[in-house]
Amino acid sequence: MSTTNATQYGFFFDQSRCTMCHACTVACKSWNLLDPGPVKLAKVFEWETGSFPNVILHGLFAPCYHCAIPACIPVANGAMFKEPKYGAVLLDPNQAHGPALRAAWEACPYGSIVFDGDGADATAYKCNMCVDRLENNLLPACVTACPNRALDFGLLSDMQKQYGTNQQLDGMPTPQETNPSVVFKPATPASQYVPYDPTVAIPLLAQRQNLPAFFTDSTNVTLDASVCTTRNSLNMKPRSVSELMQVTQHDEG
User: Fold this and answer.
1) Contact 102, 76 (CB under 8 A)
2) In angstroms, rounded to a whole number, what is the distance separating the alpha carbons of residues 159 and 156?
3) How many folded domains does the chain comprise?
4) Which residues make beta-bridge pairs with 11?
């Protein structure tokens, strides 16, 4: 794959190992001294597909993917650049305001730039690949924090040799235009480890001994996912701070 940089580093994400614990997000905030809230340099998107009793929870690790052909830089009016040593796409904090940064967010297919508010004067932030850590021979904070080793980082060529060249998971934008510096391993298909007959099991859930049944029609608890879930598809481009929090929150805390 071609790249505009002599050297390009990148991430690896194994979706099958990710439990959406958000340790990567917390570690990123801790290292960068960021307050709780929408300024998430590394995000974990969560969404559900299917309906009861066959619901699947999906997760996606999403820092900046530091594209070889960044769509954000040409419209950022000089506020963003690609540094040569690691191939990181960086944001000049002294120019982190104004319409050019909103245009850069619009141009990025992955929504990598985040803002601390919805107003025109909001400050923009983004993942900087932990260049300060790399300069001290340390991995990015998000990678070191992952308890299940779902993340790896290094020379993109090394990541590709070890893990392959897949740059896209289901629901993500096409990588052809920007050539993101990332390798993905998709989650393995869900398996039913304990076989059972849903037509028998679901009516049992309605029973409450001497109390009235919870339901009499099984379709009441097996609704179409588009009706009974609010996060039924991947949304990498939330249009507001509240929407960003909603699509990247941990349902368990």
Assistant:
1) no
2) 5
3) 1
4) 153, 182
Q: What is the distance in angstroms between the CA of the first residue and the CA of the last residue of the chain?
A: 40
CATH of residue 62's domain is 3.30.70.20
- pLDDT above 50 (res 4): no
pLDDT mean over 220-234: 75
pLDDT at 229: 66
Choose between 160 and 215: higher pLDDT.
160
Tens-place pLDDT, residues 80-98: 999 999 999 999 999 999 9
Does residue 203 lie in a domain region? Answer: no
Residue where the block lists tokens 């400050």 = 123
Give 27-65 pLDDT, tens digit per residue: 999 999 999 999 999 999 999 888 777 888 899 999 999
DSSP assignment of 54-99: EEEEEEEEES----SS-SSGGGTTTSEEE-TTT--EEE-GGG--SH
Return the SS3 of 113: coil
Task: Return d(Cα 18, Cα 187) in angstroms, integer.
Answer: 9
In a domain, 209, yes or no: no
- What tokens appear for 96 in the block? 């982190």
In a domain, 39, yes or no: yes
Residue 208: inside a domain? no
Whether the CB-CB separation of 143 and 129 falls below 8 Å is answered with no
The pLDDT of residue 219:
80
What is the domain extent for residue 111?
9-187+242-248
